[in-house]
Amino acid sequence: MTDHVQDQEMEIEALEAILMDEFSEIHSSESGLNTSDRCYQVTISPQDDDEDESTTTPVQLALIFSHTEKYPDEPPLLNVKSVRGIPTGDLKILKEKLEREASENLGMAMVYTLVSSAKEWLCERFAQDAGNENAEEEEIAKDDIIVPHGEPVTIDTFLAWRERFEAELALERAKLMPEAALAAPKEKKVTGRQWFESGRAAAKSAAPITDGSDEEDEEDIDFDDDDFEDDEDDMLEHYLKSDSSSHSSRMAN
Fold first, then answer.
1. What are the E-state strand segments in the chain?
2. Rounded Cα gap, residues 187 and 211, in angstroms
3. Where in the numbering of this chain does the RWD domain appear (predicted)?
């Protein structure tokens, strides 16, 4: 017959030697277990003993257990509590995990195995939360970075922009001009030949010369080289015709 009491006492002594300050006996009323037997609590942190707690997330777990009459041939009574920073939903998940492992380790002292499993779960959970926080911080940092937007500047895009800009500038200038200036028709450009045939040349030669008249006429008339060449040919042709007519008239007399 297995001496369950002796196995239980040996396990308690081993846990006290290994866990030291992290292991303590508590009153059954504080355990949350439905028992009046002796209850024990193991405080579990995600970091190792040589790590500074101030540099890690402040989470801490309490694993509470009590030996049943036939332990280790039957599972111990188990409970988990949050000492600091562990949500209730996570505690429920952990308790179910430990109860399954206890059923798999029947026949041997298993409390230290359960403590190690709980600490491993807490470390993984802590690392996952820390990773999520780091990811959020990285996203915030990315949002703070100003990223330039728009298409790269090339010769074609610059020329297209300049054309649009000049069109907009011309439109703005047109808005600032008086309506009379916009509605007035532009003076038609007069060639030298048209000016000569219109009789303005004769009027100009008969008109008295006044100050500033040359400047005004120069502003009204725009002579091109081609116009002068055409005018010279026309005038020569006109002169030859008139001279021939005069000579014929004299011969007739």
1. 23-26, 39-44, 60-66, 77-84
2. 24
3. 10-125
Query: Is residue 72 reached through a cis peptide bond, with omega within 30 degrees of 0 on the bond before it?
Result: yes
The continuous run of DSSP H or E covering 104 comes out as helix 88-104
- Does residue 201 come out as left (phi exceeding 0), alpha (psi in the -120 to 50 range) or beta? alpha
Helix, strand or coil, per DSSP, at residue 166 = helix
Per-residue pLDDT of the chain (253 residues; tens, 9 = 90+): 468 899 999 999 999 999 999 999 999 999 999 999 999 999 999 866 555 544 455 789 999 999 999 999 999 999 999 999 899 999 999 999 999 999 999 999 999 999 999 999 998 887 765 545 555 666 666 666 655 566 677 888 878 878 888 888 888 777 776 665 555 555 556 566 665 666 655 555 555 555 554 544 544 555 555 554 555 555 555 555 555 554 555 555 5
Judge whether 65 and 78 are in contact, CB under 8 Å: yes
**CA-CA distance, 12 to 60, in Å (whole number)?**
22
